[in-house]
């Protein structure tokens, strides 16, 4: 189990570090969506407003925290909403195209949340009381 956790952390962390850096300083070629398409309209709003740079920072920081190990739960918390948005984009805007990496990263995230479940126990309670 420990090996699976380390491998999952490495895959998720390195993946988000690479893709986060790619958003901040593009080095991987990405084909442009067809002009006038829904994805093109969506990206036409996301990039000029610098929203994608914010997403890139969250991906980079979350990936680094997951990769570091001791801060993996915080990294998983930062990457969770990013993954929801990745899946939502591919399902709702792309019609399911290109969803495979998002699904793989989501499965790694779910596995790691389960592996670090003791750190998330307080979030998943039905008896929350203020301190």
Written as H for each helix and E for each strand, in order along the chain, the element string is: HHHHHH
User: How many distinct domains?
Assistant: 1
**How would you classify the quaternary structure?**
single chain
Low-confidence blocks of residues:
none
Task: Compute the average pLDDT.
Answer: 95
Biggest sheet statistics: none
Number of helices: 6
Indicate the percent of residues in helices: over 70%
Content of β-strand:
under 5%
User: What would you call the structural class?
Assistant: mainly alpha
Quantity of strands, as a count:
0
**What distance lies between the first and last C-alpha atoms, to the nearest angstrom?**
35 Å
State Rg.
16 Å
Please tell me what the overall shape is. Answer: globular
Please write out the topology:
Layout: H1 2-24, H2 38-46, H3 51-68, H4 72-93, H5 100-115, H6 117-120
Helix pairs in contact: 1-3, 1-5, 3-4, 4-5
């Amino acid at each position: 189990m420990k090996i699976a956790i380390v491998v999952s952390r490495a895959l998720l962390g390195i993946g988000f570090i690479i893709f986060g850096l790619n958003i901040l300083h593009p080095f991987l070629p990405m084909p442009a969506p067809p002009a006038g398409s829904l994805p093109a309209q969506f990206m036409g709003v996301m990039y000029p407003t610098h929203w994608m740079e914010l997403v890139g920072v969250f991906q980079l920081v979350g990936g680094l925290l997951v990769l570091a190990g001791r801060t993996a739960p915080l990294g998983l918390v930062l990457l969770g909403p990013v993954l929801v948005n990745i899946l939502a984009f591919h399902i709702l805007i792309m019609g399911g195209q290109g969803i495979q990496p998002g699904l793989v990263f989501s499965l790694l995230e779910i596995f790691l949340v389960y592996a670090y479940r003791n750190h998330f126990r307080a979030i998943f309670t039905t008896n929350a009381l203020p301190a």
